[in-house]
Each structure stands twice: as structure tokens, then as C-alpha cells.
Amino acid sequence: MDKPTISVIVPVYNAQDYLEKCVKSITGQTYTRLELLLVDDGARDASPQMCDALAREDARIRVLHKPNGGLMSAWMAGVRESTGQYLCFVDSDDWIDACMIEELAERLSGQDKEVVCCNFLIERPGGAARHRHELSPGVYTGDALETQVRCRLLGRERRTVSMSRCMKLFSRELITDNMKYCNPRIRMGEDVNIVLPALCDASRVVILEDAYYYHYFYNDASMVHRYDPQMYEGIRELVRTIHAIFREKQAPGWQEQWEREAVWLLLLAVKNELRGGRKGYGRRIQGMCTDTVEAGAEGMEQPSVRPQETVSVTELAARLALRPEDRVNQLLLWVLRRPDGVRCRAGRAVFALYDRIKK
Prior knowledge:
By secondary structure, the chain is an alpha/beta fold. It has 13 helices and 10 strands. It has helices at residues 19-27, 47-57, 71-81, 100-105, 142-148, 172-176, 192-201, 231-249, 254-276, 281-290, 313-320, 327-337, 341-358; strands at residues 6-12, 34-41, 61-66, 86-89, 95-96, 114-124, 127-131, 138-140, 168-171, 204-217. Strands 1, 2, 3, 4, 5, 6, 7, 8, 9 and 10 form a 10-stranded mixed β-sheet that branches. Strand 1 (6-12), helix 1 and strand 2 form a beta-alpha-beta unit. Residues 297-309 have low confidence and may be disordered.
């Protein structure tokens, strides 16, 4: 197949310390049939001026300036303005190896609805750690795609395919046809809104072997790494949206996938409270664990019968018999199963000790 144009979309918000490294890693790709869209999401630092200056240096760069609307609104604006047959996403504080896009593009077949994935490194001050998709390297189509990928998209302690929109090449229509699921009320894990329906619709998924080409910068100041008093409501909204996507796409075994994923996600809300919650954290955890899991999403048709969708999180976790391998998840599930004062205080003490040791 002829080399397609690939659109790389970079949402930019207060990224002046990282932006140039990110952009240079993209313009320095060995694959040159690129357009790069820098989406200034109402940044308040020098990022907007830096975007304009970088665009003057390379004709492949276009800059969109827009009022602040959040990460999701920024990359969606970039998608609407893009022209490439394939789409790639890079966050403004991350960077990519010079070979990444060429290596991904070489695995494209030219058929409709394909996703090609590489692996990634998490970059911390003390060094980089390799992370890969749990799905074995290879090409998945037909029955293999159905039985090895779509039936295992969510609901596992380690996701079969990362739900990050980064480190991937998407056929354009997989993104544009599924942007209706993007829910701006979700502030954590929002990539699931687009990657999940894209993988449900894909006719070909490719996982590269090794290929640790994407560098994710671990920013301790990031919202996802500090206490968020709104996290629980955001996760509930995410759980409802995942249900709506699964129900409409009818992925194999989607009901159990959704139920399991709901518990794993709600463990994050428990962790958020144990680690950073202030006065009333135990009461809030008890409320989360006895609350019911909700289906559907605002603005979408609700199922007429929901016999299994009003169960409490604690009851759901017991019925599913989850057995985490990760020790943190073991602790969180221990608290969730009986969120009394003793277990909440014990969990909080463990996290306080861990954070002191880490410092």
C-alpha cells in the first residue's frame, strides 16, 4: 500500500517545560508523511506562543487555539481538524522514539478499521520502567480477534490491551465514528470512552513485540496522582458509560466484563480515600462499598430489564470472587469486602507507611 498520511494530535495545556521535547520527537520521526496538530486548550503559560513558533519551523505543524475545555475536548478538536487516514495521539509531556510511527505504519494492511499498538515506558526521575500489553504480540483478526481480544477487553486486573489512546495507530473511522461516546464529565480513565468502542469495532488488531517506543512522563503533580474529592462520582460516570458502550457494541461476555471492571475501577476510589482523604474518609468508603452499581449513561437509552445491575459493590465483588495478584489491590479488596472502621484505619495506615518509605 502507498504510504498514508498520519495525523498526530497533541493536546497542549500549560506544557511549556515539556512541549519542545515532545514536538521534536514527532517532527524527527523517520516516517515523514505526517501532519501534526497542536491543540492549545486555553493554556495560561508560554505554551500557545511556543506552539506558534514551532509551527513556523515545520510546515507539517498546524496549531489550533481554543478555550479551555479539558483533555478530551482538546484531542477531539484535533481529530475534527485532522486529514490523515490514520490517527496517532501523543500527550504534550510525553515523547516518542524516532522510529515509532514508521514501525507502527509498517504493520498496517490498508484494510478498514485496524489498530496497531506498541509498548511504552514510564519515565520517573529514578529511571524508566517497561510496560507492555498483556495480549501476546501478533495479528488478531476473525475468530482470534473475537475469542482472544473482544471477550477480554475489560474486567481483568491487568488489561489485555492498554486503554490509553496513545502508543497506537487507529484507522480514522474507528475514532470519528465513536466520538459520540466521549463523555466530558469523566476526568479519570476517559480514554476508555474512545479506545473501548474502537477495539469493539476493529477488524484487525496488531500488537508489536518489544517495541517500547512511547515514553510516558510520570508527573507527580498530575491530577491523577493526587487526592481527588470528585473521583468517586467520575468513576461512577465512567462505569455507566462503559455499560452503554458494551451494550450497544455487544462484545462477547460484555455483562461480566462490565461487572468486573466496575469493581476494579471502584477500588481506585477506595484507594483515593485511604491515601489522601481527610475527615470522613471511612464514612465515604462505606458509602461507596454499599452503593449500587449503575448501568447506562445520561442521554442514552436505558435497558428495560436490569436484574443484575442494582447490586452493591461489596455484593458484586463477593459474587465475582476476584483474586488480585497485586498486593495493593489485595489490600483494597480486603477493605471493600468489609469496610468497617478497623479495616479502613488499617488500610489508611498501610498507605501512610508506604508513602513515607517511598519519600
